[in-house]
Design brief:
60s Ribosomal Protein L30, Chain: A; globular; mainly beta; 334 residues; 21 strands
């Protein structure tokens, strides 16, 4: 069977494919996730609970909850950066909200993406975190970006005043209302899966795979312990392009170990419907709730086993995926 996508063109630029989802109940999902996470962490709880007010510390989000008109968008993608940056790929959160058929009166977007290099002045990681009221004009923009300071190589995290981004993003959208969510706590890693989000994604894949795509969006706190993050530096000079393979890519990225607490915004999929949408199955970007220069793209906790690591997460399921401007280029091969 083919994928029931709905092509659409907005502003003569964006091509939008729409895929409706039929998510399981949160109770079923919690049951499916429990065994894989319990095998990886010494202490794990997974429950369906009322979402706390995520606007309050330590999460400091622009949205109160994760419920109402729940949907996910995968915009652009890694092929817009590799093997060669496509500097013409610029997007507006306002236009993306319209492409996602969000309610203009009220809504929110959170997730992970590439920052507006044309606004910030250099390539950077973006932590989208915004909500709106009254017709996509009254914004609470709590978005952050993480960049590499050219002279020192230090990480600089700051608030983004822009409603734009570039290259790629994975976004969870909702009305931002309170409602039931899955709460996951995990402490003391004993297994070999060092990434909290990949542990969840692989559990989703095992339970549902591509046959019944299950998509999650939400936030988690690295409550204690240390984890590793990358921050993209500015784009390489032309004579060092194109990227030829993953090693060259990893040599270009900068990696950093940051102490908790760190707030992470995440989008996850069990699989790619029909294996034709080119979905990024896991993408997580983060910032320090204490205002420190800590954040970027989450990878995993450090050390072979990590008794100190602790996570607290809140996720909800999406009812539709929007694939926006899916690239035709392939990613670099190893």
């Amino acid at each position: 069977m083919g994928i029931p996508t709905v092509p659409n063109v907005l502003s003569n630029k964006m091509h939008v494919e729409k895929f409706p989802l039929s998510p399981p109940s949160l109770e079923e999902l919690a049951e499916q996730l429990m065994a894989p996470l319990a095998a990886n962490y010494e202490h794990t709880t997974i429950n369906v609970v009322p979402c706390p007010d995520l606007r309050k510390p330590p999460f400091n989000l622009a949205t109160e909850g994760l419920s109402g008109n729940e949907k996910i968008a995968d915009i652009g993608g890694q092929p817009n950066l590799f093997p060669r940056p496509r500097l013409d790929c610029k997007f507006s959160f306002i236009e993306i909200a319209k492409a996602m058929e969000m309610d203009s009166a009220k809504g929110s977007l959170i997730g992970a993406g590439a920052g507006p290099f044309h606004v910030v002045g250099c390539n950077c990681e973006l932590v989208p975190n915004l909500s709106w009221e009254a017709g996509l004009v009254n914004f609470d923009n709590q978005t952050r970006y993480a960049r590499i300071v050219p002279d020192s190589g230090a990480v600089d995290v700051d608030r983004s005043t822009s409603l734009e981004f570039a290259l790629m993003a994975n976004l969870y959208g909702s009305l931002g209302e309170p409602g039931p969510v899955i709460k996951i706590t995990a402490r003391g890693r004993k297994g070999s899966e060092k990434s909290f989000t990949e542990c969840i994604q692989r559990a989703l894949k095992k339970a549902y795979g591509d046959a019944q795509t299950v998509s999650l969006g939400g936030t988690f706190l690295v409550k204690s312990g240390t984890a590793r993050y990358h921050v993209m530096p500015d784009f390489p000079p032309e004579h060092k392009l194109p990227f030829k393979n993953s090693k060259q890519l990893n040599d270009w990225l900068t990696f950093h170990d940051f102490e908790s607490p760190i707030v992470c915004l995440s989008v996850l999929h069990s699989g790619d419907p029909g294996k034709t949408m080119g979905l990024r199955l896991e993408h997580t970007h983060c910032f320090s709730p204490l205002g420190q220069n800590s954040g970027g793209h989450y990878h995993y906790d450090v050390d072979d086993t990590n008794e100190a690591i602790e996570y607290e997460a809140y996720f909800n399921t999406a009812k539709v995926i929007y694939r926006v401007d899916r690239p035709t280029e392939t990613q670099p091969r190893d």
